[in-house]
Automatic annotation (TrEMBL):
Record carries keyword RNA-binding: no
Protein name: DNA-binding transcriptional LysR family regulator
InterPro entries: LysR_HTH_N, LysR_subst-bd, WH-like_DNA-bd_sf, WH_DNA-bd_sf
PROSITE patterns: HTH_LYSR (PS50931)
Coiled coil: none
GO cellular component assignments: protein-DNA complex
Keywords: DNA-binding, Transcription, Transcription regulation
Pfam families found in the cross-reference section: HTH_1, LysR_substrate
Species in which this protein is naturally found: Planomonospora venezuelensis
Length: 312
C-alpha cells in the first residue's frame, strides 16, 4: 500500500517539521513534496500533517503511520546491511556440506579459522556422501561442499566449479596384530587373499578395484559396510581390511594399524565444490580449507610408520 519512498518522505517531513526542509534534504522541489504528501494522504484515507503557519506537525493518523514507517525503514536498513554482508563475505548464512571423513579434521580446522575471521557469518554444516552433496548444491541447498572422487569418481556438472584441495593417499587399515602390520609398508599383492570392507556402488569401477588390477588380481568378495565406525569395528575384529583416507587417520581407533601401499596406493582428489556464482563467503571458506590441508594431513600415518597402533 505504501512504497518505501513515500515512507522515507513521511519520516523526513515529520523529523524536519517542514515540507521545504524535507525537500532540500531529499533533493526534491517543495512543490513535489507537497504533491507526494497529498498522494500519501489519499492512500492513508485522511490528513497526516496539520499545516501550520510555520511548518507542519503530525496528526494522530500521521503519528500512527510514522511509527510503523520507522519500524519498516529500520528493518529495510538492517536487511540492506545484511545483504551487503552476504555479498561482501562477512555476514549472513553459509551452508556447508562435507563427506564424513572430511569432517574428521579438514572441515573443523577450516571452520575454526573461518569463524575467527568472520564471526558474523552463521555456518550451517551438513554431512552426506559426495554425490548427495552435489545434488543438493544443484538444487540450491548448499553454498559450498567438500567432495571427493572416492570410491568411483564424481559426475560432471557444468553448473558446479570444483577447486582441488588435496591428493589424499588411501592407506590400508589392518588389525593391529596382523602379520603385515609389523612392516613399514604393505605390498598390495600380499593382500590378495584378504576380505575387503567397502561400500562402493554396485557394477561400477572403484579405486580399490583399479589398484588391485594394477597389482595383478581382483579384490576378494567385499563386505559392504558404509559407516566408518562399522568398518573400523570389522577391521579390529579381524574380519577384513579396508582403505582409509589419510585425512581420516585422526579418527582411527586403537587396535588398528594404518600402512601405506607404496606405489600401488590409490589417491583420491578432495575438492571444494562451488556454484558458478558463489557467495564471497563460500569462496573465502574454500581458501581456509586449502590452508587447513597440511594440518589435517598431520594425522596421517607416514610411509615409515611401523608401530602397529592407530593414529589418534
Amino acid at each position: 500500500m505504501f512504497d518505501t519512498d513515500a515512507l522515507r518522505l513521511l519520516e523526513a517531513v515529520a523529523r524536519t517539521g517542514s515540507f521545504t526542509a524535507a525537500a532540500a534534504e531529499l533533493g526534491y522541489t517543495q512543490s513535489a513534496v507537497s504533491r507526494r504528501v497529498a498522494a500519501l494522504e489519499r492512500r492513508a484515507g485522511g490528513p497526516l500533517f496539520a499545516r501550520l503557519a510555520r511548518g507542519v506537525r503530525l496528526t494522530p493518523a500521521g503519528e500512527l503511520l510514522h511509527r510503523h514507517a520507522g519500524i519498516v525503514l529500520d528493518h529495510l536498513a538492517r536487511a540492506s546491511d545484511e545483504l551487503a554482508g552476504i555479498h561482501g563475505g562477512y555476514r549472513g548464512r553459509l551452508r556447508l556440506g562435507a563427506f564424513a571423513t572430511a569432517n574428521v579434521a579438514l572441515v573443523p580446522r577450516a571452520l575454526r579459522a573461518f569463524r575467527r575471521e568472520f564471526p558474523e557469518v552463521e555456518t550451517v554444516p551438513v554431512e552426506a556422501p559426495s554425490g548427495g552433496l552435489l545434488r543438493r548444491m544443484r538444487e540450491g541447498g548448499l553454498d559450498l561442499a567438500v567432495v571427493s572422487d572416492y570410491p568411483s569418481g564424481l559426475p560432471y556438472d557444468d553448473g558446479i566449479e570444483l577447486v582441488a584441495l588435496a591428493e589424499d593417499e588411501l592407506l590400508v587399515a589392518l588389525p593391529g596384530d596382523h602379520p603385515l602390520a609389523a612392516g613399514d609398508r604393505v605390498d598390495l599383492r600380499d593382500l590378495r587373499e584378504e576380505t575387503w570392507i567397502e561400500a562402493a556402488p554396485p557394477e561400477r569401477r572403484t579405486m580399490l578395484g583399479d589398484a588391485c588390477a594394477r597389482a595383478g588380481f581382483a579384490p576378494r568378495t567385499t563386505v559392504r559396510i558404509a559407516e566408518w565406525t562399522g568398518k573400523f569395528g570389522f577391521v579390529a575384529a579381524g574380519l577384513g581390511v579396508t582403505l582409509v583416507p589419510s585425512l581420516a587417520a585422526w579418527a582411527v581407533p586403537e587396535g588398528i594399524a594404518l600402512r601405506s601401499l607404496g606405489g600401488f596406493a590409490p589417491r583420491r582428489t578432495v575438492s571444494a565444490a562451488l556454484p558458478r556464482a558463489p557467495l564471497p563467503a563460500a569462496r573465502a571458506f574454500a581458501g581456509f580449507l586449502a590452508e587447513a590441508v597440511p594440518e589435517a594431513e598431520g594425522g596421517a600415518a607416514p610411509s615409515g610408520a611401523a608401530d602397529g597402533q592407530a593414529r589418534q
